[in-house]
Amino acid sequence: MTAVLQVEALDGGYGKLTVFRGVSLAVARDQTLGLLGANGAGKTTLLKTIAGALPSTKGRVLLDGRDVTRMPAYLRARAGIGLVPEGRHILATLSVRDNLALTRAIEGHRPDLPPFEHRVAEVYAMFPRLAERASQLGGSLSGGEQQMLAIARALLLKPRVLMLDEPTQGLAPIIVQSLAVTLAGLKGRFAMIVVEQNKAFLEQLADRILQVRSGTLVAADGRPATDN
Amino acid sequence: MNLFTQSVISGLMTGAVYTFLGIGLVLVYRTARILNLAHGETFAITGVAAALLAGAGLPLGAALGLAILISLAFATGLHRFVLRPRAEWPAGTLILITLGAAFVVRGVLILLAGTDPLSFPVMFEGPPVRFAGGAMPLQGIALVVLGFGVSAGVGIFLAATRAGKQLLAAAENPYAAELLGVNVERARITAYAIGGLLGALAGVLLIPLIAVDFQSGLAMTLRGFIAAAISGMSPVGVLFSGLGLGLFEAMVGAYLGALYQDPVMFCVLILVALWQSRNIRFGGSRRA
Amino acid sequence: MRKFALARPAALAAAAVLLAPAATPAAAQEVWRIGEVAPLSGPAATVGTRLNKVTKMWVEEANAKGGIAGRKIELTTCNDENKPEKAVACARDMIEKGAVIIFGNALTASLRAIQPLVKSGPILLIPSPNVVPGADTYGFQVSPSDVDITEAIAEFLKANKIDKIGMVAATDASGEVGVASARKVFGDEKIELRLARIDLRATDASTQLARVAGSDIKVVYSSYTGGGAITVVKSFKNLGLAQPLIVSYGNISDAFVQLVKDVKPPRLLGTGVAGIVPEIVKDPGDRARSQAFLEAYAKRYAERPDMINLLGKAAVDVAEAILKTPNPKDYPAVKTFLESTPIPSVHTQRFSAKSHVGLDASSVIIVELKGETWVKADPVK
Ligand SMILES: Nc1ncnc2c1ncn2[C@@H]1O[C@H](COP(=O)(O)OP(=O)(O)OP(=O)(O)O)[C@@H](O)[C@H]1O
Ligand SMILES: [Mg+2]
Asked: Is there a smaller number of Cβ atoms within 10 Å at the N or the C end of chain B?
C-alpha cells in the first residue's frame, strides 16, 4: 500500500503544552481512517497540526512521500490537504459563492484543474441546497447548510486527503444519515480521516478506527496501535 | 466670488482627504484587525521626505516617487517587523504599539527636518479653474478626482475581486482562510501596502496646498478615523462619510463660522454613534 | 507647645549657622538660575525653538566672558508643549529652585497660566504681543502689544487711504486676541473690518478668503502664526486673489519665505518690529544693535534671524540689565529699576510705572517680501 498521507512520530500542542505525542499513522488513497476519542483527547489538535495550522515539535508529515512538515497551512491546502474544521468556520460576511471561490487560491498550483465553474457545478450537484443559496451570506445559513458548505469548500481544494473534524456535530439524525451517504460516495476518490464522537457513524464509514487517548493513538480495542 | 460654490469646492477637497485617510484605516482594520494609529504617518513621512529630497535638488517626480516608496516601506515594515511578531498580543496593546510607532516617526522627522513646516511644489501647475463664482486649483481637482477615484477603486477591489475577497476573508477568519489556501500573511501585507500607498498619495496631492511638519501624522490619522468610524469601518461607506464630512465642515465653516466646526462635528459624531448602536440594542448583528 | 514655638527660631538660627560655612566658600561658584518656559514640541514648537536659540546664544556668550556680575548663568529650559498645565508645572518648579528671571517664551494660553505664579516675583519676561501684563505685576512685555501691531496696520491703511480690511484669524487663544485688537483698533479708526475665523487644522482656507476678500477689499490681513499661515497664503494664491496680503510678525522668517516663495500672492506684506530691517530704524543706537544682533545670530546658526529671534533678543537684553542691578533678587527694586530706566536693545525698551509694555506702535513697521528679503512695504495703489 502506498500512503497518500503519512505521519511519523509526530508531537504537537500549544506552545510549551504538548497535547499529543509520538503519533504515527498512514492513510492510503482509497482508505478512510476513523478517529474516536474523549473530549480533550487531542483529536482537533492533531488534525490542525497535520493541516499546518499548528506547528509540530517533533516528527514528520509526508504528503505523497513529500515532507511537508515545515510547510505553512495555505501551501498544504494548495498541495491537497483539506480540513473541514471543527466548528465549520464559515466566512459569515461572504456569500456562499464567495466562500467557495476562496479555494481558487489553488489555481496555478495544481495540474489538470478543470475550470472553476465545472468544479463548482460538481459540488452544487452534490449539495443542491448550496446552489439555491449561492448568493446568501455564509452567516445566514443553517447549521446543516454550513456543514455542507464547509465540506464543499474542502472538496473544491481537490484534496489528496480530506480530514473532517466532527462533521455530525449539531446535526439532526436525518441529516447525519444523508451526510454518511454523501461521504460514503466520496470514498475511494481520496484518502479520508474522520474524527467523530458518533461511533455508529464512523463504523458505517471507516475502514479502520483508531482511538486517541490522552494524546496517543491506540487501536479501537485499546491495544497500542501499530498502524504502519 | 460665490461663497456657496467655494464652500462646495473646499468641501470636496477636504472630503477627499478624509476619504483618502479613512479608506487606508478601514483596509488595515478589515484585514489585520488593528486600528493602525500610525497610519497618518505615511502622509507625514511622504511629505517630509519629498520636501527634503526635492530641496536637495532631486527632480520633483523622482522625489515624489522615492518618498512614496519610503512610506510604503514604513507601512509594510511596521506590520512585518513590529506587529506581526506580536500577533498574539491583545488588540488593545497592539493599538498602543501603533501609537508608539507614530511617536517614534515624529521623533525621527524632527531629527531629519526640524520643527518648521515644509512643503514642495504642486504637480499640476496652472491657473485655478473658475466656474460658478468659485476657483479650484488644478492640484485640488487632482486631489478630489484621485481621492474619490482611488478610494472607490479600493472599495471595488475589496467587494468585487478575488484578491479583495481573500483580503476580507483573511480579516474575518484567518484560520478558515488559510485552510482554503489563502496566503493570509500576503493579504495583510498587501493591506498595509495599499494603506501606505493611499496615505502617501494623499500627502503628495495635499501637502503642496498646505504644508507638512513632524506632527501632521496623528492629525491625519484622526481625520481618517472620524471618516472610518462614521462609515462603520466599511470600505464603500467611507467614500460617502468622507465626502459628507468634508462638505459639512466647509458649510459649517462658511455659514456658521469656524468656531462652531468642532462642537457641531462632535454632535454629529455622537448622533452617528447612537444611531449605529441602535442596531446593537435591537439585537441586530451589524458587523463592524 | 509654647516651648516648642519658642524653640523654633532658635533651631532655624542653628541651622543657618550650620549651613553658613558651607555656603560661604561656594560663593565663587554661585550662579544665576534662570528659567525658560518654551514649547519645544507640539504645534507651537517653531516659536519656542526660535526663542530658545537666542536664549542659549546669550547664555553661551555671557558665560564665555565669565558670567554676569561675577556669576555664571545656569539656564533651565522647560518644554511646556504649548499646554498651560505643563507651563504652570514648569514655572512652579523654577520658582522653587530659586530662578531670578523667567523667560516666558511661550504662547498666549501658557503665558496667561503662569502669570499668577509671579505675583511676588521673580521677573517674568514676555516676548509675545498677545499677553499684556499689568503694571502692578512682575511681568514685563518686551514686544509691542497686539494692539500696537494692529494700530500700525491701521496707520498703514490710512496712509494709503484704505477704509476696509479683510481679516482671517485662527480659532485659538491667539486668534481671539487678534480679533479683539482688530475690533477695537479698526473700530476706533473707522476702518470696516470683514472677519472670518479658521480652524487651526484646516487644510483649505478658500471659503474664509472668499468671504473676506471681495473685490471692494484692498488689503487682507492674516493674524495667523505658524503652519496654518501657509494654508492661508496658498489658498490666497489658488483663488487668484490680487490684493496685498499682510501676514503676522511670526511669519517674517526664512523658513516661511522658503515655503511660500513659489506660491506667494502678488504682494506679500507682514507686520514686524523695525529692527528686522535695520536701515529704516531711526535711532542710531537701536539700528547698530539690531544690525549687530542680526549678524551675530547669522554667524552662530548659519541662518537669517527672524522677528521671533529679534523679540528673544529684546528679552535677553532686559534680563542682562536685571542681572547687573545691585541685587537682582530684590524683585520690588528690580521692578522700580525697569519702570524707570530705558533698556537699550534692538529697540530700546521703555517700561513705566503705568505700562509694562516696552515697545509701542512706533516700533512696528509693515514690511514687504521682495525677492527673498523683507524690506519696508511700498504703498498700496
Ligand atoms: N488554543 C489552545 N491553547 C492551549 N490549549 C489548548 C488550546 N486548544 C485546545 N487546548 C487543549 O488541548 C487539549 C486537546 O484539545 P483538542 O481540541 O485537540 O481536543 P479534542 O480531542 O478535539 O476534544 P473535543 O472532542 O472536545 O473536540 C485539551 O486539553 C485542550 O484544553
Ligand atoms: Mg475537537
From this structure: C
